[in-house]
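Entry type: protein chain
Record version: 2
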Amino acid sequence: MNKLFSGFLKYFKLLLKPSAFILLYLSIYFAAQTIITFIVSLPLVIINVLENPELVNNTKAFETLINNKIFELAIPCTLISIFICLPIYFLISKIRKQNFLQHCKFTKTGSATVGLSLILGVSMNIFITIALNYINNFIPLEEISSSYQELSEIIMSSNTILIFITVGIMAPLIEEVIFRGLVYSELRKVLNAPAVIVIQAFLFAAYHMNLVQGLYAFFMGIVLGIVVYKTGSIWPPIMMHISFNSINVMMNKAMPKNLELYFEKYHILLFAVSILLTASTLMLIWVSPRRNSAYIEENNP
């Protein structure tokens, strides 16, 4: 019993430091988004209240006003937060005497792997979109998480270029730096690859704080974790995440009506093709020789 307890205590101590830094990394991005949103939205809410004093006495209308302002400002506030957080993460690595680029695995990778990652992002987007529609027929996900649809509609009503830059490019970059870069590397110091892949995927899903996004974020996090483990570089996950999000933006902002009808008509065929394409591209990435092996991967199986 004493051996079991001492073993647990030793393992707990090993996890303590990485867990503390993971909490720090996640808190920084969350705090930045919260503070920036508060600073930007507060003056607008005050102006609205001054123009419509009756809002103060109407709790529901006042809450709706605040939520709408937060959703409307989500894109610019997220972009500002990203530009604030990236230098902070770099500074933390500097203080810890770590090479930020090496720690996050910003190493070269083959052009074929990048191409496969872009294809994988698109195929996974189609697969997840159709799969969620199928699940919604049995479990009303939109009713359980109605805020997701409302949030998506308000966000997607913003400026198209700003949405593409933020949602399509910068959000994938910061999320990969956090989850497949900083979090992944911290966990790999003390855990084997399968455990790390599952844990970082769970954290990635939980961080979205939404049932619908959480469902597909966990699956996506598993795949992204496998890709970064196999390639030894964060670039393939970044490219995959960018293509995944960019397709979402294009489908929401620029998809012709006839193409939408085509998706609805041939959803079974598209679902089958997306499964085949996702599996085959992931397999090709898996069997491809790794050009780079980060030191953490070399020292931990």
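Comment: Residues 2-299 form one domain.
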